[in-house]
Each structure stands twice: as C-alpha cells, then as structure tokens.
User: Fold this.
Amino acid sequence: MTLFAEVILSLPLDRSFLYAVPEAFKKKVVKGARVLVPFKDRLLTGVVIERKKTSPPGLKLKAIRDVLDETPLFSPQFLSFTRQLSRAYYSSWGELLRIALPASFAPQSKTRVVITDEGRLALNANKISPLEKDILLLLAKKSYSDVFLKRKSKASRFSSLLSRLAEKGWVCVEKGMDSFHERRETGLQVTPVQLEMDFSLDKESLRTADMLAGEISKDTFSYQYVFGSAAKREAIYLYLIKKSISSGKRVLFLVPEIAFTGSLMEKFQNRLGEHAALLHSQMSESRREHEWLRINDGHVSVVAGPRSALFSPVENLGLVIVDEEQDDSYYQKENPAYDARQGAYLRAKQENALLIFGSMAPSVETYYEAQKRGTLHILEKESTKHRIDIVDDRQNRGIVSPKLQERLRENLDRKNPSLIFCNRRGYAGYVACSRCRYIPRCQNCDIALTYHKRENKLVCHYCDQALSPWHACPECGGQMVRKKEVGVEAVEEAVHRHFPKSRIVCFDTDIVKKKKDGQHILSEFKNGRIDILIGTQLLAHQKDLPEVSLVAVLFPETTLSLSDFRASLRTYQMINQMLGFLRSDKDSNGVIQTSFPEHFSIQSSPFGRYEEFYKEETKFRRLMNYPPYVHMVEVLFQGENLRALARKSREFTSSVRRGAAAIEILGPALTAARVRGMNRIQVILKAKRRKDLDDVLRPSLQKIKTRKSVRVYY
DNA sequence: AGCACGCCGACT
DNA sequence: GTCGGCGTGCTC
Assistant:
C-alpha cells in the first residue's frame, strides 16, 4: 500500500505539495510532523498536514527525504489555529508555521560556491568579464553562499552568471544542509504550582477577578474585556495567572512591543522566576531557541511577550491575555501578515481557554465585540483627578499659549519637571514660495519636505532624504518662506524664549538616532537635571519615562487630518497615552493646546471619558459603513510603473465587482504620495459578512498577478 | 520566494 | 545582429 503526504512549505503560496512516503517512514509521517523534502533543486523543511492513500494521476511525485520528528511537533489544535489565522489575513500558512519555530528547527539546503584552481588561473589570465571577475575576486579569499554573492554582485541575472562560471569549471557549486537541532522528546509535565503573590485588589476588582477566575475552571472558551487603569488591570491579571497556574493550566500573556522595559515584566520575572518565559524582539537567536525549548518541554507556566509570543509551543493553555489591546504593534504588516489579537482569539477558542483583552483606551472593534457579548468589565469610570485645561489655540499668536506659559511658570517655581508633547518632527511643516506658492517636494515620494532648523535641511519624512534648503524659489525666483505649521524644534525654540534660564531639552527621532543620546537624555530627566522635556510620540513610547506634575499636549488635532477611518481613535489614544505620564495627585496639571478643541476625541480623552468617545465614534462608523459594522479589507498595489499598476488595479476591481453584489468597493485610488519612488494604488472593499468578502477576494487576488499587499481591518 | 523561459528595445 | 529589461508561469 503506497502512502502520500500533503506537505506545507514555508513559501508565500496558498497551497500544499504532495510527496510520496518511502516504506521506512510510513509510521513516522503523521499530521504535524516535520519532514525534509526535495523542492526544485533544494531541500526544505515542511509540515505534514494530511496522510493520503491516493494521488492524482499523471503527477510525478518526489519522495520525502527524511522525517524530523518521532512524534508530531505541531498539535492538531495548533495546526488548525494557524490555518485559520492565515486564512483570515490572506497570508501563507507555511510562513506562519515557520515563524512559530526557531531557525534551527526549520533546516534547508544552502548553496556554497567555491573557487577552483582553474578559476584562480582564469583570474590571472585576464580574459574574463568584469562581472565574473568581481565574483572570482571575492571567492579567492573564501567560499560564500549563493545568496551572499547575489547580493554583492551587480549582475542582473546572477543565476545564469553563476552557472556560466560553473560550466567553465572556474567555480564549484556545493549543496549542503543547515545544521539542525535534534528535538528532545519529553513528556508533558503539568505540575500545579502554588505561588506566593500579594495583590491589592479593591472590592470591585476582586469581584470581577473572581468572576473571571470562574471561567478558567469551566474549561470552555470565554471572551472577556477588562477596561481600567494599568494598575487595576495588572492586579487582575496576576490574580488570574495565579488561579490558572494552581489549577495546572498554562498562560499566554501578550503585551505591545514597547512594554518590555515596563514594570510588569519585572514583576513577572521576580514572582514567577523559572516558571515564566519572557520573550522579546531583541533576543538573540540562541536565547530565543533556549526559551522555546523550555516552553516546548513543558517547564514553563507563563509565556509573556510581544505578538510573536502568540506562536509559543504552550500546551494546556487555560488563559490568554492581550494587554493594551488597542496597540498597533499587534498587527504584523510584513509577510506573513497577521493580527495577534485575532490570533489570540482563535488560539484561545481552539484550546477552550479564557481570553482577556485589557486596555483603558480600547479599539472600537474589540470593545464593540465585548459589549455585544455582554462580557465587558469596567473597573472604573472617569479616572482623572487632576486639572486639565483645553486651550483654544486659534486665539493665540505665539506657539506657547499664555495658559501653558502660566502652568510652566508655576511648575518651574515648584522645581518640578514638565513634559511637552508635540507630535510633529522638524521645525515647520513645510516651506513655500511667498509669490507663486511653490512647495518643495521629495523627488521619490511626492510629499512636501519638512524644514528642520537644527540641521538646516529640508527632510522627507517618508524616505529620510535630506536636501539643503534654498532661499529663492526655483520656479519664479520669489522668496521661500516657512509655513505656519509648527514642529517640535519650533516649540523648543519658543519655550526657550519664554524661559531662557531653564534647562530645556528636545527628544525626537533626529536626536535619538544616536541611541546613547536618547538614554542619556532620559536619565538626565529622571535625575531632575532637565526642567522641561519636549518630545514627539517617540518620547511617549519610552515606557520608563517618570510621571510628572505637568504634561502639555500640543496640536493633537494634526492626527485627525489623516485619511484613516481610525484617526479619531488615534487622537484619543495619543492624548490618553501622553497624559498618562501625569502624576495622579490633585496638584498635577494637564494642558491640551489645540485649534480643534470642540472635536469629540479631544473633548473626551483628557478626562478618560471613553464611553462618550465611543458613542460619537460608533455613530460615525455606522454612518460611513466602517468597522465594526462592516468587514473591511484594503488591497494595496505597489510598483514603479503607474500605467501597469492602474491597469492591474482596475482589472482587480472589475473582477471583484463581477464576483459579488454585496460588496462595497472604494477605488482604485492613487494614494496621496509615492514612497521611495513607488506608486501605490489602493482599493478598499467592505461587506456586511466576512464570507462575502472571502468568496470573491480570494480568487480575484490569485487571478491578478502583481505585487500587492492585503490588509484586513475587521 | 526563487528561478527559468520568452519576448521586445538599446548597444558592444 | 546580441544583451538585458521584466512579465509570466511553475515548483509535488
């Protein structure tokens, strides 16, 4: 009886490949096991997803070369969860499985190129082309991989160049295998652990925590949302983690990328010690592998980390937490694209675990979902105890309003440090000719260049290209003037003017380019050697920034002008995050300085009135047919040739239109600017039911062959 | 993805 | 006349 295996490979393809199973491997080739298979002219690691008794006629199959696992590495639940995730985001299943493994668990053949004696002679003989000579010169010192040589070589068709060299006998191309780890096959040890943990749960929180803890023991999937301050959420999380562990269940704890210097992680390390695995993005490959093995062997009860921790080999999951659920870093845009929030949902569901989302500035989609399910827990209402002033900027002539000057003065007098956020880099938004209104734009990106005074450059914020500014307009010779839009540099200058004796420092991308400078500034601030620290959102992302008694947010309305249906939410979250650095005593002051004070996001956010914001925002979303009321997908076509792009995108749109009537199509539309010389055309699809989208989108995407990326919003 | 094939424009 | 651009197709 012959046996065949359906194998998934780590390629950007939405399909599997069929292989013949040699007699010797029949027992070991099972669903979830890794196999080494020949593919084209190389060897790749794949995952068996199905055993088959028959194969389609007329298909000449290759045979599996080796089986890497005695028992399946991936459980059926894990396979199912990753497949669903890949389908939800139109990304490749094989690539998702690949990122679930440390590199040494997915070996593949590598090509090494070695120079021959004849090759060395040819190098001296001088009758070779410059391209060939470049390669041989490199190889004269040592051998290299073909990938490395390809990157070094200027040849456009490198592969044919290489085979020509091999034909002439100048180089020898060798195929070798990656070294890979033998997997340890250890049994699961689920040892219930008792942990000493102290909690400070107030009555309300304790009630919620107890109720949620009840869900763990039920052993069924449960979807819950915890709305509240970081401190209150944290207490609940730790309570639940303790409950989970003591009942022998494991925990997956997801946090945003930036949270790694945060105190919660330290607490984890201290309280859980060996029982916890803390993962982060700057971990070395060997360290990552070490942690992966510990988790895989069942030695770890809690895995905490950013979105990629979602794929940790944790068995017997009882609790999945997604903290700061609204954070953008949960969505991976590069291939394989996926959203760790949706991933957490799918995985928790698959494992019958308790799923907890938590935040104080929720995403509309998740909040809506929790409300619909009736599983929303609000730990506190309006949380602001301090005084907040919303200053109408339109009344002012200067950059720093009288109100802010007053507050800064008070705070300086009390010897307290202050924070000022202004979310725009550079000095002025743009420069223009005073006569003909000509605006200098980036050659590659089409967007207006921003004037940076510190470096005296015009800078493109898309591709970072910097030009020296010119004084006369190249079109009419008129004088170039700076426009009114204000950047951090201008804020710094203005604050300096008002408080010449104070120690004022600016913290932005341009300064932090040198990493040490950034750390230095932060520690100076912590040590009280800076009176006023001025920064962009980059500063707000520094989690170890100390709390202060004065926080000013300047011009938050700039976020509102983005052509994104989540602009209001972004504004809400940004203000919320920045004011989060306010000490929570009555003497603390917040100042919002804006030219759009009546906007609901600016009105509600400073006071933590999310419900109020949510009501307004959902009104708009419902009216405009945006998530969560529809499912929405954005398809982005990218390329240099605008003509070809336009043709492809229109072809795509009409294919979708032919496919279904229940889909609303926006576009194709040229996006506002090119990026690094690339044109981008956007098509947005909306539908009431996800299935309507999938049914027509999948075939349409397959049919139109060109570089495109898909982004799923809800 | 990676690579081979195949068909049109500027050059030793 | 070729070299070399990239559009298209295929990988069990």
Notes: Residues 4, 6-7, 9, 11, 13, 16-20, 37-40, 55, 59-62, 156-157, 641, 644, 705-706 of chain A lie near DNA strand C (CB under 10 Å from a C1'). Residues 642-659 of chain A form the longest helix (18 residues). The longest strand of chain A covers residues 42-52. The CA atoms of residues 131 and 155 of chain A lie 7 Å apart.
